[in-house]
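Lab notebook, bench 4. We co-purified these components, and the gel suggests they stay together. Before we commit to crystallization screens, I want a quick structural picture of the whole thing.
Request: model the full complex, all chains together.
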Amino acid sequence: MEPVILTVNGTTRHLFVAPHRTLLETVREDLDLTGTKHGCELGECGACTVLVDGTPILSCLTLTVDVTDAEIVTIEGIGSIAQPHPLQRAFGEYGAAQCGYCTPAMILTAKALLDRDPDPTDEAIEEAIAGNMCRCTGYLAIVRAIASVAETNR
Amino acid sequence: MTIDPHHGIVGKAAPRVDSLAQATGMTRYVDDLSFPGMLHGKILRSTQAHARIVSIDTSAAEALPGVHVVLTGTDLPVPFGLLPVSQDEHALAIDKVRHVGDAVAAVAADDPDIAQRAIDLIEVAYEPLPVVTTITEAVKVTDEPIHREPPRNNRDREMSLEFGDVDAGFEAADHIREDVFFYQGNNHAALETHGAVAVVEEDGRLHVFSATQVPHYLHRILASVLEMPEGRIRVTANPTGGGFGAKTDVFSHELVTAQMARITGRPVKIVLTREEVFYAHRGRHPVLMWVKTGFISDGAITAMSFKTFLDGGAYGSYGAASLLYTGQLQTVTYRIPAYRFQGVRVFTNKPACGPKRGHGTPQPRFALEVHLDKAAEELGLDPITIRKRNLVEPFTSTVNHLRITSCGLSECIDRVVETSGFQDRYRNLPGGRGLGFAVGAYMSGAGLPIYFNDMPQSEVMLKVDRGGGVTVYSMAADCGQGSTTMLATVVGETLGLNPSELVLVTADTDLTPVDLGSYSSRVTFMAGNAALDAALKLADLVLTAVADELNLDPDVVSLGRGVVLAGDREIPWAEAVRIAEAKWGLLVTTGTYKPPKDIKGDYRGAGVGPSPAYSYSACVAEVDCDRETGHVSVERVWLAHDVGRAINPLLVRGQIEGSVHMALGEVLMEEQAFRGALHSGPSLLDYKIPTVLEMPQVESIIVESIDAEGPFGAKEVGQGPLLPVIPAVVNAVHDALGIRIDEIPVRPEKVLAALDDLERGGDGRYGPTDLPNYTFRSPQRVDPPPETVTV
Amino acid sequence: MLRLPPLRHEAPSTLEQAIALLAEDGALLAAGGSDLVPNLKRRQYPAARTIVSLRRVPDLARVRVDDSGTVRIGALTTLATIAGDSRLPIAIREAAGTVASPQIRNQGTVGGNLCVDTRCDWLNVPDTWRQAAEPCLKAGGEMCWVAPAKKDCWAVSSSDLAPVMVAFGAEVQLIGSEGQRSIPVEQLYRNDGMAHLAKAPDEILTEVAFGSHTGVRATYHKLRRRGSIDFPILGVAAAIRLDETNICTEARIVLGAVASAPLRVPTAEHALVGRTYNDESIAEAAEAARKLARPFNNTDLTSRYRKRMIPVFVKRALQELG
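Here is the predicted assembly.
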């Protein structure tokens, strides 16, 4: 076990983690931030996406000990049921979540895109979420939801 | 009698009631649960495709510090199977293993690393047995069948049925066409892998949480395999991260998690890896098909003969039903005056197949719709005309005794043909582009339950609190399709209450009355009707009480949005329910739904196919094909679906778009294929699910035929829209390139092979030619219902 | 949940320390981890003991372009950074932009992609699967299941950057216990799936560099099933110079993902150089590429199909440059 200091959703956490523990395991199992999902643990589905210094990365491929100097943001860090992020609201309004399992990763990926490019084209949205698999919606409602938030940025 | 919505709730596009929980990461899927002292379980899986288990040595695993329990097959000896006719599985293999990935042993330990190490320490000695992996091999006589009981070699099940005089029908035909098709198997690939957590509660009862679509069936099978009374077990179905049929069976990990919790007294969790999901499978059957149809020259069908050969994998699962589904629903779209269906399902040493979206019908639908496309060409008809010539009429009975009621198929066809410009653009698109057309139909719930009984298929209970709050109790399991939102919408519409303000208690065997589960597209129709029934009774109690209280004629008392309208007065709902509780006591109502009894025929096999209503779809697909690479890109899809009534158009559209996505995966790239008995790639890298970049523009067209028996006229939408997309794409490839790909998926290699054949002067076809050497027994003859029966 | 086997982790702050750690048994170098971690989770490296992360070593993630137009890309520069750097040739940016998925490009590095382990359908499989098959050559077994008659491993070079870097004549800098050296990217690879890198295990690739690309026309075409996520199953990198009379003066054509190393196709280059650049010379070059490569059935789509696609992709790449 190694002592690590992690900054997650703005809170600094002191933890002991095994060196082979991934960030996915740490946020879900050590920090109880279970909003981060997983579908393959091999970097093939995108469901475990979190933001590290504002950039979407796959927490299943990231060792916790390698992100001790970064700002980590999970789905719990961008909004709550009391104060949802506009993307979180839009995903409901546009039917962009069915089973909801890919949704946290999709929203974080979309947030990183909109932070970088507040008014992306549909093509740019598609490029941004091309590493996030969704098995329910056929993606179209997801693109509409993200575009709707972009529209309010105009 | 259809009840028309008048509160503006049904028919309005609205978010799912749980959408904010999903979008904020609050929704609790099964792997999100943890309990104090929870152990982590792991299953050892067979590395042999077919072998006798000579010995299992678990001593080193048991001795490993941190290991609390190790189970093997003999610890759970009771066989099980979801269908009463297929009790051929064990929680862990006894005596022999039947496919790579079959569950052999299980451990529970303090942490996942220890559990993995313990699994690595279990030594299994196998004696390999002959391995069967193809339909052709599996129909042969063998000394070592995959299942000894019942003794029928590797044949799981056979059906042979004839409705009307098929030979006479062929005699009367001007033109007869035969085709052979193959549809490769594929996996649901729900994004969440399966998992279960079992907890022994304070009262000593066992509580099993599972990512399941069928909490009721899991409850029954847990009781049976664990040899415990049902009352000592509680099953909670967590919201699942996608189902599509994957989670409609009962699996090893659910049973061993429960047993290990029971033995240790500690909570135990097992969540499958993606590799294990491909071994648990229960996905689409690979099906080899032969179809022969007689036509008169105007395109009218005189008779059809259909044969199917299903590669079932190692266990029965839902296979007995899957087999019949490959034959039964052809008649639901077309009037077929005489029809013969012969099918066989075989066992092979591969993971068991089962139900996936469209259960058993996408394969024959692909075959039928491509076959009709070819027949139209030979008869000099266009693809629309040949279908329209044979279209089933509403309120009739099919030759195999299925009851057709509302049917918006004709309108679906007209709408996609018109919006796609099909008639002008078909055959006229420039190089490499093409259009294809097809239709489909699906059940709004299976007419019969899986185990024979006369009880309702769905039950809903409503309870009202003194503040006016209404709680809806239903076992319907939300696998992403939106069943919880549907229940809230139906109850909300009936009572004039905002769906988001209702309390929904779902999918828990302790708390909710039975619903059979989220399969066969049954929930909107059946649980929706049960909810409607309960809500109407509650409305009646409230309105009667208010009328009494105010000395009004009940006819002048009705429900408005959040109020009771009593003559010229508006009484707030909360006040009205207090009046009602004062009069009646506790306000609880129940509703039930049981399908009509007269929707099925009287023959062996008649139980599969009947439904209280069928949904209909029509599709036009536009493709752009690359002649040099064989790559097929689907550019645009028009899909019209007769959903009866759209309870929530947002969710209906979502099901259509999602169906198109899944269908495109199946037709172009997804396959659960094998190298011998080894999966060709049990990962989400090798198993190709289309990404957003493969997704075309989809024009979703909702057609409402207002079904007389559906809740507010609604029928299903979860499965039907998938069906026509697959043949529409294949027919579009023909329009684009002049080739016929009679085998799914349409890999680029196949396209090039067909183009090469065309170039060499062949017919430009790629697909199977031969059927296995198998003789079906002579068909059970069934008289068709009297001609022109109108229901 | 699929997890990593227990491992040690070191994050030295100097290259010297990293080199020393890599000399130990079972040490594996990690840059972005997007190739290493899945391979470890699938238990492809049973001898692995320690992950040596380069993340604390300074100055490895810089892109520098000097006055002469020479480009130097630090090994830890992410693929996303490369894809978005307008100073770089478009072919290199596009090749970097086709790697895996956006998230992986945010993690994955230039050095990691150049060194990415060879892949094979019989090796890059989950654990139960691999135990169910007899171990292949690379997994410690007796023979290769893809080409059982031969005593070699044919796992596929799966880097998208390698072919374009070879096409640009790039060099890599390697630093190890024996000192520092620069070699052409072309010489970084060996056509051996077991050991595809011509570098010592304790040598670290720190930088890839190439000279001015003014006047170079280059492109990268990638075959894969989906527009994202998938590894290449054929990559064609082409870089040419044409003079004012449309004569091809220089050409490099490199095939990726059809062997255990990126394959340069001298015969195709000869078909172009010194001749008018037209459909005829392009067709000859495409045919030369087809003749050279012998893909095996060890990745997505059949080898026959991939072989057939070689001239198609070479032709399309070269036509784009005309």
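The radius of gyration of chain C is 19 Å. Worth comparing against the SEC data before the next meeting. Chain C touches chain B at residues 1-3, 5-6, 121, 125-129, 131-133, 223, 225-231, 300-302, 304-305, 308-309, 312 (CB under 8 Å).
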